[in-house]
Amino acid sequence: MVAGLVAVSGVAYSESKAVDTVKERIAPVGKVCMSGEPCAAAPAAPASAGPKSGKDLYGSVCATCHGTGVLGAPKFGNAGDWGPRAAKGLDTLYTHAIGGFNSMPPKGTCAACSDDEIKGAVKYMVDGSK
Ligand code: HEC
């Protein structure tokens, strides 16, 4: 009887040990964080941080390409670059910024950004490039 009890508790012990081991094994090793994404900067409370302003989003994400014209991106502050784009209408630019357009990646790689945040950044670039 005693031996049986020991055996049973032994099993229970090794089972919970096994569960712990599995939990450790399946725990995320790290978080993928694209450059420019806010996850690296504020992992603690992203929800309470509120939506990013167009200016902030431009500075943290869009400027990577739109600051210097990477891949042919229209440069911020350059009316010649932005004039023909703006002529398409803001709605078209919003759609292209959110869904992607040629080398322009969807949401400018900021998958975590809301559509409204992206629109704010588009407006900021268009307004700042007249
Ligand atoms: C990886 C580089 C890259 C990043 C980051 C990026 N863009 Fe772009 N974007 C481009 C390129 C390249 C084009 C030009 C595409 C073309 O006209 O073929 C472009 C074009 C645009 C256009 C014009 C689309 C049109 O219809 O003419 C808008 C608007 C735009 N980007 C918004 C944004 C916003 C907003 C962000 C930040 C949230 C952003 N982009 C981040 C590369 C980038």
Automatic annotation (TrEMBL):
The secretion signal range is none
Top-level taxonomic group = Bacteria
Keywords in alphabetical order, please.
Answer: Electron transport, Heme, Iron, Metal-binding, Transport
> What SUPFAM superfamilies does its record include?
Cytochrome c (SSF46626)
Q: Does the keyword Protein transport apply?
A: no
InterPro entries associated with the record: Cyt_c-like_dom (IPR009056), Cyt_c-like_dom_sf (IPR036909), Cyt_CIE (IPR002323)
- Pfam families, per the entry: Cytochrome_CBB3
Q: Does the keyword Disulfide bond apply?
A: no
Residue stretches making up the Cytochrome c domain: 49-129
Name of the protein in question: Cytochrome C5
Q: Please state the gene responsible for encoding this protein.
A: cycB
